[in-house]
Amino acid sequence: MTAGILGKKLGMTHIYDEKGALTPVTVIEAGPCYVLQVKDAKRDGYTAIQLCYGEKKTSRGNKAEMGRLKKAGREKLARFVREIRVSDAAPYQVGQKIAADIFAVGDFVDVNGTSIGKGFQGGVKRWGWAGGPGGHGSMFHRAIGSIQSGARLSRVTKGHHMPGHMGNAAITVQNLEVLRVDSQNSFIAVRGSIPGAANSFVIVKEARKRPKGFKKRVAVVLPPKKGFKAAPKAAAKK
C-alpha cells in the first residue's frame, strides 16, 4: 500500500492531455525522503512511519536531532520531519529511501499544507460579507453591524462569523489526480491547486476516499474523425 511522501510545492503551470485539452496542475517536488523511525502496534499502539525531507545546517539543530538521524544513516539535519500512518509497517525499514515513483499516473492523492497567512482581516474579506451601502453618509460600508438579537438570546452564539486571523492553517485537499511523474527529478504534477505558498512544505498521501467511478488513467489514442483529411506534406526542397 502506498503510504505517502513529504515534499515541497514548486508552483503551478498547465499541461495538455492526449485530446489537446489544457489542464492546470501544481508541480510538487516529492522526496526523496528517508525513514527515521518505524512504529508498530505492539510497542507504540499504532503503526506509522516517520519521514524526513530536505537538509539544513548543523548549527540550526541540536545533538538529539543528530542522534536520531545518525541511527537512520543520515549525516545532515532534516528540514521537514513528519509522521504518516500506515496499515502495515512491515515493508518499511529505518534508513529506507522513498522517492516519487511510489505514485503513478492516474493515482489519486490527498495533499496537506499550510495556507498562506493573511493576518487580521475584516468580515468582508474573511467571510464574504456583502457590506452596507457605498453612498456618502451611510456610515456603514464594511462595518460589523448587528451580531445577535438582544431580546431572544441576549448573547452571541458560538462560531459566529467575525473579523479575525485569516489563513496560516493546516488544510487538506482531497482526491487530486496525478497527471505526471518524473522519478529522475523527483517531481509529480497533480490536477488543480494545493494550499500554501511556493516552496512551502506539503504532505502527499494516498487518497482515503476514491471518487465515484474511479478508473485509473490510461493513455488512449483516438482514431481520426470521419471526413478528416491529413494536411498535405510540404514538398521537398530541391
What distance separates the N and C termini?
A: 60 Å
Shape: globular
Instruction: Tell me the helix content.
Output: under 10%
Beta strands, count? 12
Q: Count up the helices.
A: 3
> What string, H for helix and E for strand, traces the elements in order?
EEEHEHEEEEHEEEE
Strand arrangement, largest sheet? 1-2-11-10-7-12
Main pleated sheet: 6 strands, antiparallel, barrel
Mean pLDDT across all amino acids: 81
What's the alpha carbon Rg, rounded to whole Å? 25 Å
Secondary structural class: mainly beta
Stretches where pLDDT is under 50 for at least 5 consecutive residues are: 218-222
Give a topology summary:
Layout: E1 4-16, E2 22-30, E3 33-39, H1 41-44, E4 48-53, H2 63-71, E5 80-85, E6 97-98, E7 108-114, E8 119-121, H3 123-127, E9 164-166, E10 170-182, E11 187-191, E12 201-206
Antiparallel strand pairs: 1-2, 1-12, 2-11, 3-4, 3-6, 4-5, 7-10, 7-12, 8-9, 10-11
Question: Which descriptors would you attach to this protein?
Answer:
single chain, 238 residues, mainly beta, 6-stranded antiparallel barrel, 4-stranded antiparallel beta sheet, 8% helix, 34% strand
